[in-house]
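Hi support team,

I'm opening this ticket because the web form for multi-chain structure prediction keeps timing out on my end. I have pasted the exact lines I submitted so you can reproduce it. The total is 976 residues across three entries, so I didn't expect it to be a heavy job. Is there a limit I'm missing, or should I split the entries? Thanks in advance, R.K.
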Amino acid sequence: MAIGSAKKERIDSLAESTADDSGVSLAASAWKRLRRSPVFLFGSFIIVAFVIIAIISPWIAPHDPSARDLADQVIKARNEIPKPQPGYPLGGDLQGRDFLSRLLVGAQQTLLVGVFATLIGLVGGLALGTLAGAFGGWVDSLVMRFVDVMLSIPQLLLAFGIGALFAKPNLFTVILAVSIVQIPVFARLLRGSMLAQRESDHVLAATSLGVKHGAIVFRHMLPNSLGPVIVQSTLVLATSIIDAAALSFLGLGNPDDRIPEWGQMLGGAQTVIDTHPQLAFWPAGCIIAIALGFTLVGESLRDALDPKNRR
Amino acid sequence: MALLEVRDLTVQFQRKGEPSFTAVDQVSFDVEPGQTVGLVGESGCGKSVTSLAIMGLLPKRGAKVSGTVDFEGTDLLRLSDKQLRDKRGRDLGMVFQDPLSSLNPVIPIGVQVTEVLERHRGLSRKTAMVEAAELLEKVGIPDPTRRLTEYPHQLSGGMRQRALIAIALACRPRLLIADEPTTALDVTIQAQILTLLKGLVKDLGTALVMITHDLGVVAGLCDEVNVLYGGRVVEKAQRHELFAQPRHPYTHGLLASIPRLDAPRGERLNPIRGSVADNIPWDNGCAFAPRCPNALDICRERTPVQEDLGGGRLLRCHNPVQPEVPQEVSA
Amino acid sequence: MLRYTVRRLIQLLGVVLVLSLLVFAWLRALPGGPASALLGDRGTDESRAALNKQLGLDQPIFIQYFKFLGRALTGDFGNSTGVQPGDSVVDIFVQRFPATIELSVFAIILAVIVGIPLGYVAAKRRGTWFDNLSVGGSLIGVAVPVFFLAFVLKEVLASKLGLPSVGRQDAIGATRVTGFFVLDGILTQEWDAAWNALKHLFLPAIALATIPFAVVFRITRAAVLDVMDEDYVRTAEAKGLTAQVVRSRHVLRNAMLPVVTTIGLQIGALLAGAVLTEKVFAFSGVGEALALGFERRDYPVLQMLIMVAAVVYVVVNLLVDLSYALIDPRIRTR
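Hello R.K., no limit was hit. The queue was backed up. Here is the completed structure from your submission:
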């Protein structure tokens, strides 16, 4: 419909540019180039580092991230919080909890938000996109009209709107809000590359050999459409973490902060940013680093999978 | 003195992390004023790279050009970017292969013609427009004033190529390089464009370097022909001699692979075996040897040197095709 | 061209209609329905039932929708419950909309005048340290949460540069004409007022501009790289045109086509970004109203402003698509 045929075209052209008939050789040559790409290696290094931190954080965190060990040093009236001290190298937060431990353990929830949001967006988009791309005709028109209207609401604003639906937000509502807005993007992407696939030689060949429709969709079209989807997923891992932080900033995030998450820590620090900037800078730095990691990997994947760059 | 003297022109492409690749290897040839010279060969033989090197249009990074390209006594390869820009379009014109992609899609044809007049002859847009209309008329575009306001996608393929020729000849250059100007066109249009080119260069006295893979084009147009293989000139001859007596097996093969209407029924076409590899080595032996019907052991061991056969004829072959002696018909 | 425009306008109408349905459904999807939303925690079962009747919520759903639509058409979107309690939502919108436009336009201008030249130079010097540095910078720009950047600018730069860090203009009794403070100052020749408003715009606009900047830069770079390989650029070089003419008339003219589309698409991100940026700088535009609306669950305000944001987004992209035809003759003369 009316929202920028331009936007649709951009998503579709991404779908076409990275979709390729020769799935195996494309993947192989992409991998060959990725291994030499410093951008990819740097991005993966960041991601791997954070994943390791997330996994071992319960053991390396010096204190329980929800225990108010230093509560007696929090003086509300004078706006004082625990300073860095032996055993607490970054001091405490507004509740007197060990800030370093919260940062370390925060990696877990933050990555979970990113991963789950991407998964939900992916599965939803996969369902819609497969439906539309595989059958074409009126199913396609109906699904795509719906997708277009969803795309006509600015993405982050839609996420805010969905977040505001819940009177009592929690971690799950945050994930839901940032993931639902990704569904139409994934749907259009998949449909675009599947349409390109449907016209391609090897699908025509399979059809003419009498391979069943379902088998063609799942064995030929879907696997070959995955390139652009993988690229988009990597980029969405970054955006969903940033978007979740924005939800927290607007008070639409998870209010229960016993289990730390960087977006929430950053959102919660907004009122004291002038007096205790470190409470904002540390989680923000972590968000920027992990988002950069995912973005670098996503961009280098996009370059590697682009047939134009294969010479 | 020749208008254009190309001596030992060598172009090497260097990509990061890959061995350098020699696209043009010590190519030499002359073009006299008003003469038409053909550069013939299959795709990948280095003929287009040669033309781009003469025009100074190769990418600055990644391409290494050596040798000399003397145009009216100045070596084009030693000119600064600015000096070269003054010459291009004014003294040297070029027509490219694909007329659609060679015209800017978002600018009217008129501006694309006038900008070269404005640049080199200092005309105002208004006078240039009048002249542009005359130019379009001269290259056979009907209703030129209307066409000036149109965009490339509104013209047919033949019209676009005519427009490109008009642009290239706008400043009456002394040398025109045409890089496969008819390859992208319909067969019927091809002949029209060739006739047009032939007439124009004759009228204007422009020398023409014709780059083609099509010996039919050469037969109709060129005074002198250079046959390129693997980035080197393998045979050079006047047109008539080349067609009457091809000496290099490659030239012979090119001629034999042209379908002939007067061939006896049932006679097979004679294509050259194989195809051009990406990088053809001249280091040990003749690059054409793997495809050559005449190849001897020496062809795979020693690189053939260029021999002067006299009469402006050059050949690079160990075992050339022997001139055909008219055969007596035996009973 | 005219037929195309008319067809797009009809499509636009369709989108707005479906949007209204979505926004209507959105309020009804709230747990407990609009009555609890309006009453908040204070609501009892009786008061909720009473309000339901008063709002006509006991009627069939499609009648409710048509009533909602009817009211919306007459410009009645209800009253604010949290942002400016009691004020008409439409008044709030009219009051605050110019601020957001002023901010967004300024941000877009910043992004374009920095992003396009930078993208061009990076493409020309592909693979050099300059290219790598600016690409890296744009990727970092994408990874930084906008509101955090806004905070950094406000806390670190504002005092250093002597720029104001909150509001739209210091109270200096400037005359109001259009609601666009900078423009008002120029129109009334109150230069101090215009300058003062401009200073207030500066930091929020920089924060907001990072969103479109990163994209404009990268699309420009990619497009210039593509166009430089085109045959018509080689033709232009073969004509001996000066480097400037080749750049402006042949390379940039064509490279701008995808950039224009991109700018249109960035409006969406810009509107969402305005919510965050305006909140940080207490910049009283619709973005701040939305931020407050989310915080205080002011559904009438949210309902209208989200709808407006979507319509603005769709309309801007329609305009972009139409203007695209102006710069690309292949579409215009189709």
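A quick check on our side: Chain C has two domains: 1-88, 92-331. Let us know if the file doesn't open in your viewer.
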